[in-house]
């Protein structure tokens, strides 16, 4: 049985480079301020308690964002609420629903429900 050979640059597509760059910038945007914040707070005369309060508020806000994002991700009916405006929800077009386009999870039976 022959093994297929993959060149070194075949997997390194522009999409992979873009995602890698976005990941690097995201990490830098989080890790650098996290490392510099204690020194900055103490240079302003703040104590460890002030730093703890700031970190606690940041963690709380991040948890609230995760809670809201999880509820949006678990919504069984995908919508275009940002286009609909406040209080209105529009269903996504059928072609945007991957389970309907690819026939996964039941094929014809699922399509008949949509």
If you had to describe this structure to a student in words, what would you say it looks like?
62% of the residues lie in helices and 0% in strands. It is mostly helical. The protein has a domain at 21-61. The longest helix is centred in the N-terminal third of the chain and has 30 residues, at 14-43. The relative contact order is 0.04.
Summarize the structure.
This protein has 114 residues and is mainly alpha-helical. Helices cover 62% and strands 0% of the residues. The protein has helices spanning 14-43, 48-73, 81-84, 98-102, 108-113.
Topology:
Blueprint (H helix, E strand, L loop, with lengths): L13 H30 L4 H26 L7 H4 L13 H5 L5 H6 L1
* String of helices and strands: HHHHH
Instruction: Compute the number of strand runs.
Output: 0
- The secondary structure category is mainly alpha
Distance between the termini: 45 Å
Number of helices: 5
Radius of gyration: 23 Å
Described by strand count, sense and barrel closure, the largest sheet is:
none
Q: Give the strand content.
A: under 5%
Shape: flat
Mean pLDDT: 75
Q: Which residues sit in consecutive blocks of at least 5 with pLDDT less than 50?
A: 99-114
Helical content, roughly?
Answer: 55-70%
Which features would summarize this protein structure in a list?
5 helices; flat; disordered C terminus
